[in-house]
Design brief:
about 725 residues; alpha+beta; Aldehyde Ferredoxin Oxidoreductase,  A, domain 1; Aldehyde Ferredoxin Oxidoreductase Protein, subunit A, domain 2; 7-stranded mixed beta sheet; 6-stranded mixed beta sheet; about 15% strand
């Protein structure tokens, strides 16, 4: 255990430990790191009924903290973290999620992001349903929540290396009761790194202590730049110490009912996972070969969907690299255990060159992002993965942003003079890593890159005279957020899943490629609109209660294909009803869970309108998400696209130039996207500009005066 002598106390707040009752503590923690205010705020019955927990609590607390003029870097902006009423359950897998809400440096709108790790559940068992951090400190600080003694402190932080793999380890050991592994394991920290300090794409790392490895590990809330907000407030870490976690720590209304559902899903995972997604051995990396097979693996900035070298970064490679026989769950009792890691990886670049480190991952998104950069070297994937994590940089924004830069370089928008000597063509390993290190140092081209694709597009047009339309077409961002790693050109529903996602193009709202493109289960606009209603609402629900989505559909019952709606995995939906009712004592049916989400989802849409977004123009997407931008793209799949012109557009491509074909196909596909938006808006109860109607808000029970005030001018 490290001495706490250098951690000077700035403010101290003793509190009654209290207890959790039916999944709630009944209060949230407010910390103002600027003026030292620490206080307890009540959780009302209305909050529990309307906002449920997790993301909902975060949105509600942030709504009441900011106004329409608040910017991401204003002291009034907050980082709010909450688990949810089911969070911390040990009987059902995937119940360790934390949800982060803030105003985003990338999108300038409200953003939510989720992470595994222990912090959210530990925070609850320490006595708090959420923590909201506001203000800006005048020096680096740590916030410590001692859930054993009942004390919250703001402390001046003496640590000089704020990168996560160093500082998370030091914080957890500093605030543990002893050097014993069991005591360190009772502590969790939220940290970021130097990359978050110098970019807009900072992530937050949520730690947990791996008892078998006897090492600190982390999971990321990656999207939207919440780590950047964290460092703007000069917070180095949030640290919580939890009392012992037990099966009944949530004080559930009916623990046997909850455990009954847990036994069913755990049996399925143990018996079926190896023959389905194999999450327990390879995690999400199994998607690399699947996406490549279906022409969906992003390659060269989403130009193409497969690559002959992709097996070099596919799951068989990671099966060999991941340390075997490890219980790799990121929460206690999670039998899915998909949180794999590589031990003793020797770094080849950067400030920690030559050190052997633990690398958490890679997940599919990180490996897929490497493919998008045209790099098929597993050592690069691990090096990049480690440095993004420790620097506090979102791997999705980094890889998608770098793929954009690489295409700009190969098209003459950039050259080595403009990049400060860096050769950033596709496949560049050394120089793309150097950009990452520059971001952490706050210098060179890394500072430009760290602003994200939306701002790079503007800079390249203004400073270098680049064609704004070309940059818009190939710059894979929407709402200011970089795309996650799936090619969507042949799935109109997935284009809508990205374009209509509230925070920006992230797959956690809807992943409809197989339903739409492969299985043709949703052929009409109405079918697609129904899917783009149900699945975003259903996936939102996980973030309200503190659940991970993966146990829902990454293992399926043996008879799932014979059910009426196999894509919904109805047996598992019934499980979640049972778990939620078992914890909270509130009886629910599947449609009740959708209604819970619909309230929060529509509230977040209104929040976006309040901040100057949330209208139709902000649901636009780059054309590369829709179809081929360049002649090279078209010709690489000429048979497919010629067939679409003939069969769908009604145009005979014979005798047409490739440029003419691209233009005709583009007009058709862009019109299809607009028709999809109309259908989705109508299904969701929004007007043609994407604004929830007052009638809809009244139906949902969220027509609060300040909410109606926001939407009334848009009706």
């Amino acid at each position: 255990m490290t001495s706490r002598g250098d951690y000077r106390v700035i403010a101290r707040f003793p509190y009654e430990l209290g207890s959790v009752e039916r999944g709630y503590t009944g209060r949230t923690l407010y910390v103002h790191v600027g003026n030292g205010t620490i206080e307890s705020r009540p959780v009302t019955e209305q909050m529990k009924k309307v906002f449920i927990g997790g993301r909902g609590f975060g949105l509600w607390r942030l709504w009441n903290a900011v106004d329409s003029s608040t910017t991401w870097d204003h002291p009034d902006n907050e980082v709010v973290i909450s688990s949810g009423p089911v969070g911390g359950t040990t009987a059902y897998p995937g119940s360790g999620k934390s949800l982060v809400v803030s105003l985003s440096p990338l999108t300038e709108n409200v953003v939510d992001s989720n992470a595994g790790g222990y912090f959210g559940p530990y925070l609850k068992f320490a006595g708090w349903d959420a923590i909201e951090v506001q203000g800006k400190a005048s020096e680096n600080v740590v916030v410590f929540i001692d859930g054993v003694q009942g004390v919250v402190e703001i402390l001046a932080c003496p640590e000089t290396d704020i990168n996560t793999h160093v500082v998370a380890d030091r914080l957890m050991k500093t605030f543990a009761d002893s050097d014993a592994a069991r005591d360190i394991a009772a502590v969790s920290a939220v940290t970021t790194g130097a990359g978050a300090e110098h970019s807009r794409m900072g992530c937050l790392n949520f730690s947990f202590f791996d008892l078998k490895r006897k090492a600190v590990r982390v999971k990321q809330a990656g999207r939207g730049g919440t780590g950047t907000v964290f460092r703007d407030k000069r917070v180095v870490g949030l640290v919580v110490k939890s009392p012992m976690v037990k099966a009944d720590s949530n004080s559930p209304a009916d623990i046997e009912r909850m455990q009954e559902a847990g036994k069913r899903i755990n049996k399925e995972i143990l018996e079926l996972d190896a023959s389905q997604c194999d999450m327990r051995r390879v995690g999400t990396s199994h998607l690399v070969e699947i996406m490549d097979e279906y022409d969906l693996l992003p390659t060269h900035n989403y130009k193409f969907g497969r690559h002959p070298e992709s097996p070099k970064i596919s799951s068989p490679v990671w099966r060999e690299r991941f340390t075997p026989n490890m219980p790799d769950g990121c929460w206690i009792g999670c039998t899915m255990s998909c949180s794999h890691a590589v031990d003793d990886f020797e770094l080849k670049t950067g400030p920690y060159k030559g050190q052997k480190v633990l690398v958490d991952g890679p997940e599919y998104e990180t490996a897929g992002g490497s493919s998008n950069m045209g790099i098929y070297d597993p050592d690069f994937v691990l090096e990049m993965n480690f440095y993004c994590d420790t620097y506090g940089v979102d791997t999705i924004s980094y890889t998608t942003g770098m793929a954009f830069v690489m295409e700009c370089f190969e098209n003459g928008v950039l050259d080595q003079e403009r990049t400060g000597g860096l050769d950033l063509r596709f496949g560049s390993v050394v120089d793309s890593l150097e950009v990452l290190h520059q971001m952490a140092r706050g210098e060179g081209f890394g500072l430009i890159f760290g602003q994200g694709i939306r701002r790079m597009k503007q800079h390249f047009a203004d400073a270098f005279g680049a064609d704004p339309q070309f940059l818009q077409d190939i710059g894979m961002e929407a709402k200011g957020l970089e795309y996650s790693e799936y090619v969507t050109k042949e799935s109109l529903a997935m284009q809508g899943g990205y374009g209509l996602a509230l925070k920006g193009p992230q797959h956690d709202e809807a992943w409809l490629i197989f339903m739409d493109m492969v299985n043709n289960q949703i052929p009409t606009f109405e079918d697609k609109a129904e899917a783009l209603h149900y699945f975003p609402m259903w996936r939102t629900w996980f973030g309200l209660v503190g659940h991970c989505k993966l146990p829902w559909n990454d293992v399926e019952p043996v008879n799932n294909a014979q059910t009426d709606e196999p894509a919904k995995v109805p047996e598992h939906v019934a499980n979640y009803c049972q778990v939620y009712s078992g914890v909270t004592g509130r009886e629910v049916k599947p449609e009740d869970l959708i209604l819970q989400s619909e309230r929060v989802y529509n509230f977040q849409r209104v929040f976006g309108v309040r901040m100057g977004f949330g209208t139709r123009e902000h649901d636009a997407i780059p054309y590369r998400s829709v179809g081929p931008v360049t002649e090279e793209e078209y010709e690489s799949r000429a048979e497919r696209y010629d067939g679409h012109l003939k069969d769908k557009v009604g145009v005979d491509p014979t005798g047409m130039s490739t440029a003419e074909k691209v233009k005709v196909l583009r007009a058709y596909r862009e019109d299809q996207y607009e028709q999809l938006i109309d259908a989705v808006y109508a299904r969701r109860g929004w007007n043609e500009n994407g604004i929830p109607t007052i009638e809809k808000l009244e139906q949902l029970g969220i027509a609060f005066p300040d909410v109606v005030e926001v939407v009334r001018p848009h009706q």
